[in-house]
Design brief:
With 436 residues, the chain is of the alpha+beta class. The chain has twelve helices and 23 strands. The strands form six sheets. A four-stranded mixed β-sheet has the order 21-22-1-23, covered by helices on one side. It has a four-stranded mixed β-sheet with strand order 2-15-17-16. The chain has a four-stranded mixed β-sheet with strand order 4-5-3-14, with helices on one face. The structure holds shikimate-3-phosphate (S3P) and phosphoenolpyruvate. Residues 25, 94, 165-167, 170, 192, 312-313, 336 line the site of shikimate-3-phosphate. Residues 25, 94, 165-167, 170, 192, 312-313, 336 line the site of shikimate-3-phosphate (S3P).
């Protein structure tokens, strides 16, 4: 694994067809629903991110028989689960926020904990709504560790969410599977809807009216085979490379195009990006297709507030693209970025400033004055995969060399990231890893 890298900027890029790894959000969910269905399930193109294997090892820890062979994951029916578990959720917010509902629903006592980053992230946002449904659980000052007790008696309630978060919505919907009556969740803004789509794929009766979702408790039925579409968020870095390149170099293949995930495409198109979507189809209710990316001259934009939840993980990358665009780009109402794996507003602003970008930090976003000429630097990405990948794009279009001190964190969502980057930028990546 590459631990520390140096990136030589402004080298020749090579034409490449990028197949992103399986979608991270969908992989977490299909592993969880597969485990709950208590039947066989063969999952192909499972995510290559460590976070999804964290979910798998937590499920194995509670007694679900799961075999992993590369990107194929086989889930088997189970007879007896453990009564009491300690679950290490590592760096993964999705794991820590979705699994309390599973422990409660399956009547397992447990403690969920995580690494130093995850231990700083807010958990009250799932604890409070789960308690309203009848869940018995407690956090530690609103954070991890979370202690889940046995004996949940979940009832149907209508919950209105103030924070736009697919993880909170999904925690409630998963608890709804075990409730005595239908559970209704009303979102303040549309967030990614993979849980809703997948629950239907597993035979659950679910109604969606605008931002209001009703789940009718029921037994999950395994589809037996599930192919995960390519991860749009991983593809975004490669789309950015294709836009900034002087020549046409990138085509993205078999990528998820669920509209609640692709606000990045909407925003960059408004900035002047030339892209073409082809070969669209739907699998397991999820839209997918190929994206052709053409070199583009970009202009600054004010990102619409309503789109923020659907572009949230791509905002550091948008900061990078805005650095090369003409004019001003403004991102506001994105305070959620401060409570991700790191403070992503700080990490984006601090690092782009090092590259020489004219960027200003706001409480809930940032303002970039475009038209910058970037210069390579030594940077630290606060052990955050999305910051490492965004800054790699910046480094490839900077003069001189950039050293990324903590590049290994890409493995959280996309372990083969640098292997793939080397195929597009063969002379740009120098591996500085020190191995024993
Ligand atoms: O549900 C999910 O799979 C995710 C939801 C988002 O988090 P929030 O729910 O906290 O917005 C996103 O940032 C994260 O990468 C994955
Ligand atoms: C925020 C992220 O994930 P999680 O919340 O699952 O840690 C992410 O992948 O950018």
């Amino acid at each position: 694994m590459i631990l520390m890298i140096e990136i030589k900027g402004l080298q020749n890029l090579v034409k490449y067809s990028y197949h992103p790894p399986g979608d991270k959000s969908i992989s977490h969910r299909v592993a969880i629903l597969g485990a709950l269905s208590n039947d066989w399930l063969n999952i192909t193109n499972f995510s290559q991110g460590k976070d999804c294997f964290t979910t798998i090892s937590c499920l194995q820890e509670i007694g679900i028989p799961i075999e992993v062979d590369g990107t194929t994951v086989k889930i088997y029916p189970w007879k007896k689960l453990k009564n009491k578990v300690n679950l290490d959720c590592g760096n993964s917010g999705t794991t820590a926020r979705l699994l309390p509902s599973i422990l409660g629903g399956l009547n397992i006592e447990g403690v969920l904990f995580g690494d130093s980053s995850l231990s700083q992230r807010p958990m009250e946002r799932v604890i409070t709504p789960l308690k309203k449904l009848g869940g018995i659980l407690e956090g530690t000052d609103g954070k991890l560790p979370i202690k889940v007790e046995r004996g949940w008696r979940l009832r149907g309630e209508k919950l209105e969410l103030q924070i736009p978060s697919a993880q909170i919505k999904s925690a409630i919907l998963l608890a709804g599977l075990f409730a005595s009556n239908p559970v209704i969740v009303k979102e303040s803004k549309v967030t990614r809807n993979h849980t809703e789509i997948m629950l239907k794929e597993f035979g659950i009766n679910l109604e969606v009216k605008e931002r209001e979702i009703t789940i009718y408790p029921g037994k999950l039925v395994s589809p037996r085979e599930y192919h995960v579409v390519g991860d749009f968020s991983s593809a975004a870095y490669f789309i950015a490379l294709g836009l900034l390149s002087k020549e046409e170099i990138i085509e993205i293949r078999d990528v998820g195009l669920n509209p609640t995930r692709t606000a990045f495409l909407e925003v960059i198109t408004k900035m002047g990006a030339k892209i073409q979507i082809i070969n669209e189809k739907v699998i397991h209710g999820e839209k997918m297709g190929d994206i052709k990316v053409f070199p583009s001259t970009l202009k600054g934009i004010e990102v619409s507030e309503d789109l923020i939840p659907n572009i949230i993980d791509e905002l550091p990358l948008l900061g990078v693209l805005a650095s090369f665009a003409q004019g001003t780009t403004k991102v506001v109402k994105a305070g959620e970025l401060r409570v991700k794996e790191s403070d992503r507003i700080k990490g984006t602003v601090e690092n782009l400033k090092k590259f020489g970008v004219n960027i200003m930090e706001l409480e809930d976003g940032f303002i970039v004055q475009g038209g910058n000429k970037l210069r390579g630097r030594e940077i630290y990405c606060h052990k955050d995969h999305r910051i490492v990948m965004a800054m790699t794009v910046a480094a490839l279009f900077s003069e001189g060399n950039t050293k990324i001190l903590d590049s290994q964190w890409v493995n959280i969502s996309n372990a083969p990231f640098f292997k793939e980057i080397k195929k597009i930028a063969p002379n740009s990546i120098i591996d500085l890893s020190v191995r024993d």
